[in-house]
Amino acid sequence: MAIVAVMVCPIRAEIIDRVLAIAAGELIMLSDVTAARDLGLVNIGNLDAGADLVVAVLAKLIDRELVLAEVDRYAPAEPAAAAVDRELENVRARFPTRQIFEAALARSWIDESHLRETLRQNLPIRAYEDQRFTVPPPSDDDLARYYRSHAQAFARNGRVVSFEDARPDIVRAATDERRGTLIAEWVAGLRRRADVIDLSLLPVR
């Protein structure tokens, strides 16, 4: 297991970074997991009680590396600098002050240029998924079933909104769920074909 010791000044405390996984030939470090968690770079949804947050974030980062390797095979166009700027500003906006944002970067052992590169890589992934995973509009019956199963999701001020009033939101939610299922199935296929080494559960020596 690779272990990297990082000295952080001025407190001079030794912080140990370590490899948690290898996916598509890329190392995923504990610092990568910390950055993704603290900067909100991955969506892990609602975790079950007792679930390990580090393991959940790591799983998302493993998937990201496999997807990035697949997308790179098609030589995607370089994202516009303005688009990367917008992504960076979106991350900054999650923090009430610049100082708190910079503290989160320092806690994650990365700088803004590292974050910018991560966000740049995300844009071709998003473009590829938007192009490949399109779903037909749900039928009225599909929408009605989705509304019945998720009525509480369409509540406003404590009251469930009628089907017709909530219809645009139902269409969006049902479409996103179906698209998410297709992407998850694709990523699961990448996992089955990939060589992934998960070291996260091994004890640190």
Protein architecture, described:
- The chain starts with a strand and ends in a 7-residue tail after the last strand.
- It has a single domain, classed as Orthogonal Bundle (Triger factor/SurA peptide-binding fold).
- Residues 1-13 have low confidence and may be disordered.
- It is 55% helix and 14% strand.
- It has seven helices and six strands.
- The strands form two sheets. Strands 1, 2, 3 and 6 form a four-stranded antiparallel sheet that branches.
- Strand 2 and strand 3 form a beta hairpin.
- The protein is of the alpha+beta class and 205 residues long.
- It is globular and about 55 Å long.
- The longest helix is centred in the C-terminal third of the chain and has 31 residues, at 163-193.
- 14% of the residues are buried.
Per DSSP, what share of the residues sits in E-state strands of 2 or more residues?
5-15%
As a whole number of angstroms, the C-alpha radius of gyration is: 20 Å
- Number of helices, where a helix is a run of at least 4 consecutive DSSP H or I residues: 7
Order of helices and strands: EEEHHHHHHEEHE
Return the CATH class: Mainly Alpha
When the domains are counted, the total is: 1
What best-fitting shape do the alpha-carbon axes yield?
Answer: globular
